[in-house]
């Protein structure tokens, strides 16, 4: 808890996240339960505290790697002055959803003030304050500017955003005039956020006309289950194929065979096209318990999958090869990491792009530099991959690189384990 009584947000390692604070955002809105509030409007004020990691942006001095608070202020003001609702609790949830639609944001505090609330006794202010993060999602959809169109009644939400990243278009895009006294900027109807991103596998479809927004009656005696669909910019499919870099490793079982099969599985995955495969590296384990050496390779590919859909695909391949996650950095039959997804820089609970430790892992950098000598790793600590490989802390742990491993058995890979015990000599390097 900080000095102002606000709960600090922590990253996945338990460290306090950085903050961007926007206070006193003011707009004329038409929210309230009384008719005169909807007719005449009143002043609403919002304070927003965004929790995120600002190091990448600071290291590169680049706005693209952080939250544009100017745009965010315009979006918050658009929510305040947008589609009228009865409760400022709803307004607060909509602002929180808008902030969390950015993949770099981990949590947000929102306070909505209604200083002119119709209260019959003297008072200073009315404030609704909420904290939302990716484990406690907002009960609303994010702000999206509507594309101008003829005003017609609709029976279901119409997706309005086709932007690749982020989900929310930049403020200033054409908007549909809202009904009544509210200004033109408004919110996408409930349910449109999930329409604007790729649906999760097995997600319910409301029929040929798309998802239904109507509540269906629940048969007597059946329990009602309320669920939340976790979506952000990493769930949205790109408009054209994106270049990706995947790092594969194994040190349990027939490791070379497993890696060969995994490459084949990736090539057969819909939406993934394998372009090149690096040499096979034998490397010492980094971190974790004492264990056998690893075999590692890097796959260059393109994909039309969203970042999170690609993550699910790689995890499915890991699981198909018996991957179990009992111990962090422990031995494994197969590990597939997304090192790079185009130019996307994002930090979420389940996916960080580029991979946060890629710049210091020679077992990724050396095979990558071998297959793509001109490769550049973006983000914090990034740079030319070849140069990073030459200075990586674990560079002495890369024992050899072998070409043609996809079609030729490597002599040093022997026994039932398929991996090489630590300290055992291997063949001479076939490529450096």
UniProtKB/TrEMBL annotation:
Family matches, as PANTHER family: 2-AMINO-4-HYDROXY-6-HYDROXYMETHYLDIHYDROPTERIDINE PYROPHOSPHOKINASE
Annotated EC: 4.1.2.25, 2.7.6.3
Regarding protein family, the annotation reads: In the N-terminal section; belongs to the DHNA family.
Identify this protein by name. Bifunctional folate synthesis protein
Q: Which Pfam families match?
A: FolB, HPPK
Has keyword Lyase?
Answer: yes
UniProt keyword list:
ATP-binding, Folate biosynthesis, Kinase, Lyase, Nucleotide-binding, Transferase
Q: Pathway listed for it?
A: Cofactor biosynthesis; tetrahydrofolate biosynthesis; 2-amino-4-hydroxy-6-hydroxymethyl-7,8-dihydropteridine diphosphate from 7,8-dihydroneopterin triphosphate: step 3/4; Cofactor biosynthesis; tetrahydrofolate biosynthesis; 2-amino-4-hydroxy-6-hydroxymethyl-7,8-dihydropteridine diphosphate from 7,8-dihydroneopterin triphosphate: step 4/4
Provide the reaction this enzyme catalyses: 6-hydroxymethyl-7,8-dihydropterin + ATP = (7,8-dihydropterin-6-yl)methyl diphosphate + AMP + H(+); 7,8-dihydroneopterin = 6-hydroxymethyl-7,8-dihydropterin + glycolaldehyde
Please list the GO terms describing molecular function. Answer: 2-amino-4-hydroxy-6-hydroxymethyldihydropteridine diphosphokinase activity; ATP binding; dihydroneopterin aldolase activity; kinase activity
Q: Which organism is it from?
A: Cellulomonas xylanilytica
State the protein's purpose. Answer: Catalyzes the conversion of 7,8-dihydroneopterin to 6-hydroxymethyl-7,8-dihydropterin.
């Amino acid at each position: 808890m900080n000095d102002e009584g606000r709960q600090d947000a922590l990253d996945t390692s338990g460290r306090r996240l950085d903050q961007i604070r926007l206070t006193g955002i003011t707009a004329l809105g038409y929210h309230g339960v009384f008719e005169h509030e909807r007719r005449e409007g009143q002043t609403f004020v919002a304070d927003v505290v965004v929790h995120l990691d600002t190091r990448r942006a600071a290291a590169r001095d680049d706005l693209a790697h952080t939250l544009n608070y100017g745009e965010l202020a315009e979006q918050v003001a658009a929510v305040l002055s947008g589609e009228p609702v009865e409760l400022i609790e709803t307004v607060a949830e909509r602002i929180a959803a808008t902030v969390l639609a950015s993949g770099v944001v981990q949590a947000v505090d929102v306070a909505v003030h209604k200083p002119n609330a119709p209260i019959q006794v003297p008072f200073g202010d009315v404030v609704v304050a909420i904290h939302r993060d990716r484990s406690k999602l907002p009960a609303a959809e994010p702000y999206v500017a509507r594309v101008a169109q003829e005003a017609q009644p609709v029976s279901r939400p119409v997706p309005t955003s086709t932007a690749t990243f982020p989900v929310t278009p930049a403020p200033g895009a054409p908007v549909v005039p809202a009904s009544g006294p509210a200004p033109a900027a408004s919110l996408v109807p409930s349910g449109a956020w999930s329409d604007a991103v790729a649906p999760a596998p097995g997600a319910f479809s409301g029929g040929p006309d798309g998802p239904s927004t109507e509540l269906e009656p629940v048969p007597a005696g059946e329990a009602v289950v309320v669920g939340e669909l976790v979506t952000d910019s990493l769930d949205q499919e790109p408009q054209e194929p994106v270049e990706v870099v995947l790092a594969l490793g194994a040190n349990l079982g027939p490791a070379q065979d497993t890696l060969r099969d995994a490459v084949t599985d990736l090539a057969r995955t819909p939406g993934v096209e394998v372009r090149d495969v690096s040499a096979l590296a034998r490397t010492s384990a980094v971190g974790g318990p004492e264990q056998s050496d690893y075999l590692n390779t890097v796959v260059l590919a393109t994909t039309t999958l969203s970042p999170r859909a690609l993550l699910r695909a790689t995890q499915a391949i890991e699981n198909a090869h018996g991957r179990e996650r009992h111990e962090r950095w422990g031995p494994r039959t197969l590990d597939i990491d997304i090192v790079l997804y185009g130019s996307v820089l994002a930090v979420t609970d389940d996916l960080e792009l580029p991979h946060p430790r890629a710049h210091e892992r020679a077992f990724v950098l050396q095979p990558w530099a071998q297959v793509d000598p001109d490769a550049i790793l973006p983000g914090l600590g990034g740079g030319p991959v070849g140069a990073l490989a030459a200075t990586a802390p674990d560079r002495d742990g890369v024992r050899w690189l072998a070409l043609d491993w996809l079609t030729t058995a490597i002599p040093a890979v022997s026994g039932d384990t398929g991996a090489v015990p630590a300290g055992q000599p291997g063949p001479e390097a076939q490529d450096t």
